[in-house]
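Thread: quick sanity check before group meeting

JM: Hey all, I'm pulling together slides for Thursday and realized we never actually wrote out the predicted structure for the chain we discussed last week. Dropping the sequence here so it's in one place. If anyone has concerns about the input, flag it before I start.
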Amino acid sequence: MRKPVIIQGGMGVAVSNWQLARAVSLMGELGVVSGTALAMVLARRLQAGDPTGDLRRALGNFPLPGLAERVLDRHFVPGGKAPGAPFALAAMPTIQPGPALTELTIVANFVEVFLAKEGHAGLVGINLLEKIQVPTLPSLYGAMLADVDYVLMGAGIPRSIPGILDRLAIGERVELKMDVAGAVPGDDFSTTLDPLAYTNGPKLKLRRPKFLAIVSSTTLAITLAKKSNGVVDGFVVEGDLAGGHNAPPRGALQLDELGQPVYGLRDAPDLEKIRALGLPFWLAGSYARPEKLAEALRLGAAGIQVGTAFAFCAESGVLPHLKKQALNASRAGDARVFTDPLASPTGFPFKVVELAGTVAKAAVYAARERICDLGYLRELYRKSDGQVGYRCPGEPVEDYVRKGGNAADTAGRKCLCNGLAATVGLGQTRDGAAEPALVTAGNELSELARLVRPGEEEFTAADVVRYLRSALAFETGAMTGVFADGI
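JM (edit): ok, ran it. Output follows.
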């Protein structure tokens, strides 16, 4: 398996959908699907009627008996739900999910990877957030059933994932310990998955994908390389200019005049030390220029990861009118991305694009009724009886406080689950009102317009790849060694 030079970021909820990942993979680079909330994504796509038939074709190729048929029976609405009708809700993720949710999660991850890989030999990865632990095991298993090539994970310390991939590859039971607020010595909170419960026969052997950890610090890279329970195959080294969740600055939090976290020299990773680990790494965070790709290669990187440019290309899942707004703002020179220290329920800074009609606008945020009905970013906490409870600072304040949360932690919090779903056309409708979108992007949003040809209104994933390669003379072989075999 060769190393990709360009990794397409796995963004949002279905922003990095199978169509985008497939387009990048067909260009010879690593296309990545977002694994975030895929159970909800598949359920709602099926309720929308699967008009192209792609989902049902993928379900027809699912290798384990019974699961795909049950998912189709539970969620498919022939012809699609009525316009304006709400989506039926699936169960929210819990530490001991019911069989229907586990099956849906396995199948959903299979479907997304299968469609991205269908009919070609290019590389496809899946991106998961370590912060969203509860659905991790069935998500990995479903992706591996579709022969995913890479697993990428950030937003935490995923030390246990390499070993889990090893065990799933040989069909063995896996366990993932949960982070539970208020846990005391002796507590053992974990979730498990046994492939034998789904194969109805001997252990199914799967190909173990490469594992890339997304890191923002030298210390984390060293820790993962030396103390993980299996092989880490490389790193994506992501700076604070990247979209989505950013790692918090080191030390006491300081805000600039706009209210954004201030990053300094302590937050810049030491690439010399990362290079000394002997593992390939890719640089991310405002690297979407040919000269930045060339610079990354000179610094010893295997290449770059690019998010924002792909997030607003024709194939991504972002709704067309939101893409148009973003491109128009880029052309006009008034594209704004705010690194919000409060928006995400996780407590990590989160980049929010300031677009009209979205919850980035104070009036839209204030008018939205607080609700938590998807639950992917809920915090697990220890209840007084020793059991696990679930709370989110984005839910109704009184609910959060009743569960032991601090009311001050709810200020400014946004519902990322619902807002990101709305960004890709899968938002809920409540009492006739549509869920407002929440759009995230990196700082390079302001420069998107350079990718649009004169007279055109959009650009494609292939345009992005060709643009990034333009200074490297790939076609003449001048970059000998860039496509080296390995990792």
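AS: nice. Confidence is low (pLDDT under 50) at residues 474-487. The longest helix spans residues 99-117.
JM: adding both to the slides.
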